[in-house]
Design a protein that fits this description.
Number of domains: 2
Structural class: alpha/beta
Strand order of the largest sheet: 6-5-7-8-9-10-11
Mean pLDDT: 91
Number of strands: 11
Number of helices: 14
Helix content: 40-55%
Distance between the termini: 9 Å
Strand content: 15-25%
CATH class of the largest domain: Alpha Beta
Length: 423
């Protein structure tokens, strides 16, 4: 993947923070596992388990660019833990979440990880591909706690501890462009625009659009932005001048709403498709709402929260009961799925009588078809691959639960199937 000067600068700043934070020098067992031994027949435990409580870390965004997503993800995970504990917990232990808001700030994200890591078994949430990447070396080298991030950069693959749930951004973008070709009339020789965040998220998605363009005879017109850029007027003007026939956006909900709204106001009538984190249903109540329902689509690693499945209907009812004043969105699905996956790993580790970090990591590797009722089974057996290559294509619709309807069911395009992330 191409590394920009800005990306190197951010990486350098984060590395400096890690040096200042210092490396943990916890005592380890002879086999490298940190934690307490166990007598024959007892469950082995270690970091993150104290008394009769298993602590899991949550590094979320409640105040930054993904505040709506972070709130939904976190509340869904709190709901899962509440129900898990009501059913008896895991091996007689109750599960508790230790939550920190990093506000999508790199310094706060790294500091939050440094603070929580010694006291938790692993992380059921970590929003932000660049921030997870910043501590990846620590996770892989010494901490070795399971991390299930709400981040889909291909750079996170290859770790037995950081496990991407669903297709990575490059694969998701390949499927998104496939939709534009098959359903929206994009053809060989056309130009497509790509507006993307600098850093791991946007540049991972850009790899996907470029790969699909090469395979399909398209050209990509790039527009790189920062997470603090909220007005897409200049980007729309540049793409309109370049005569692009469609646009991919790999950014946040605010940027997507601005892009779609400005395009509509300027008569730039082309289909726009975003990655899974580039939409929030709250946008449908803004001035951009009508344009979003007409010309905007989203590639998703799962069916939406309003899916017509028993599991989705139960989650909707339970979430409404727990948080009656809050909107339903796909952050609920993402949070629930990650918590569910972590819970299943804990249960399997319990059955093996090993609730250490190593035991939980090993347990997740045995899960080859996790189905939470949202359309796409997840396979965690290969750390070098995402748990799925399929994407669902959604369209905003304020008349349905969660504000998103399915316009193409889960599938992996032929190009996505043949594609190897990082190759």
């Amino acid at each position: 993947m191409r590394t920009t000067y800005a990306a190197r600068a951010v990486a350098g700043a984060l590395a400096a923070l890690l040096v200042l934070a210092g490396c943990s020098s916890k005592a380890q067992d002879d086999d490298g596992d940190k934690g307490d031994g166990a007598a024959a027949g007892e469950v082995k435990t270690g970091d993150g388990i104290s008394g009769k409580t298993i602590k899991l870390g949550v590094l979320t965004d409640m105040t930054g660019v993904y505040a709506t997503l972070g709130k939904s993800v976190t509340q869904a995970q709190q709901l899962y833990v509440k129900q898990l504990n009501a059913d008896g917990g895991v091996c007689g232990y109750k599960v508790a979440l230790s939550i920190r808001d990093h506000g999508y700030d790199p310094q706060k994200a790294v500091a939050g990880y440094t603070e929580l890591e010694p006291d938790v078994l692993g992380f059921a949430q970590f929003i932000g591909s660049p921030f997870v990447a910043a501590v990846k070396q620590r996770i892989d080298g010494q901490d070795k706690g399971l991390v299930l991030p709400q981040a889909w950069s291909a750079s996170l693959l290859g770790s037995p501890y950081i496990r991407v749930i669903g297709s990575t951004y490059d694969i998701e973008t390949i499927n998104a462009v496939d939709f534009l070709i098959k359903e929206k009339g994009i053809k060989k020789g056309d130009r497509i625009g790509h507006v993307y965040f600098e850093g791991d998220y946007g540049e991972s998605a850009l790899v996907g659009s470029k790969h699909m363009a090469k395979e399909s005879g398209l050209a990509v017109v790039e527009q790189k932005i920062k997470p603090t850029d909220n007005d897409m007027t200049a980007q729309v003007a540049a793409l309109k001048k370049a005569d692009v026939k469609a646009v991919v956006i790999s950014a946040g909900p605010r940027q997507a709403a601005s892009l779609v709204g400005v395009a509509a106001a300027g008569g730039f009538d082309v289909p726009i498709i975003g990655n899974n984190s580039a939409f929030a249903p709250q946008l449908l109540a803004t001035q951009a709402g009508p344009a979003l329902t007409k010309n905007y689509y989203v590639a998703s690693p799962s069916l939406p929260i309003g899916a017509d499945t028993p599991e989705a209907r139960k989650l909707v009812a339970d979430y409404k009961a727990a948080y009656p004043k809050d909107a339903l969105d796909n952050g609920v699905v993402a949070g629930w799925t990650a918590a569910y996956a972590f819970g299943e790993a804990l249960k399997k580790a319990c059955a093996s009588k090993d609730l250490t970090r190593a035991g939980v990591d090993k347990a997740l590797l045995t899960i080859d078809s996790l189905d939470t009722g949202f359309g796409i089974p997840q396979d965690f057996t290969d750390p070098n691959a995402p748990s799925s290559k399929q994407s669902v294509i959604l369209q905003p619709d304020k008349s349905v639960t969660g504000g998103m309807k399915v316009v193409r069911d889960a599938e992996a395009s032929e190009v996505a199937e043949a594609y190897a992330p990082g190759a």
